[in-house]
Design goal:
The protein is globular, with a radius of gyration of 17 Å. The protein has a ten-stranded antiparallel barrel with strand order 1-2-3-4-5-6-7-8-9-10. It has 162 residues and is mainly beta.
Length: 162
């Protein structure tokens, strides 16, 4: 009886796309707290590190209304389901967010969807993120939530490589 060495998984083009996030980013955030008011502007940083060849871990830091805010995101790609997968936790919410999605045909826009509690009612609702790679050193990230039967944009973040 012979034992064959198992073949280890190899990174795909999608994993290479994920790794383009590596590094330190300056993030200009616009939070849409009240549609009748201009967005709240916040500057943040995001440091993205590789976790092996298949995943990244991003550490987001900002100051929100005088309070330190930190979040951690993971991003990976499952070649079996052909879906990107992401998680998010932060210091202002007791919820774990989980999203899945796909790149568009241009390979520049990643749209992901998930279900998590509504920030006001705490009932499960639909969430959506759209990340667009503008060029090698900048990207735009937007988050939307379904509230009261319609989708609302919560924020826009513009990332610039530090």
């Amino acid at each position: 009886m012979t034992k064959e060495t198992p073949e280890f998984a190899k990174p795909t083009a999608e994993h290479e796309w994920i790794m383009s996030h590596l590094g330190r980013w300056i993030v200009d955030c616009s939070f849409y707290m009240d549609p009748a008011q201009p967005p709240m502007k916040v500057e943040a940083t995001d440091t993205v590190e590789a976790h092996g060849q298949f995943f990244t871990i991003a550490k987001f830091q900002a100051n929100m209304m005088g309070t330190p805010f930190a979040g951690v995101a993971t991003l990976g790609y499952d070649p079996t389901t052909k879906q990107f997968q992401s998680t998010w936790i932060d210091t202002m919410s007791p919820f774990l967010f989980f999203f899945t999605g796909a790149l568009d045909a241009s390979k520049k826009v990643l749209t992901m969807k998930g279900r998590a509690p509504d920030p006001m009612t705490k009932q499960l609702t639909d969430w959506r993120t759209v990340e667009e790679h503008l060029d090698a050193n900048s990207r735009k990230f937007e988050m939307f939530v379904s509230m009261g039967g319609h989708e609302v944009k919560l924020f826009t973040q513009i990332y610039r490589r530090a």
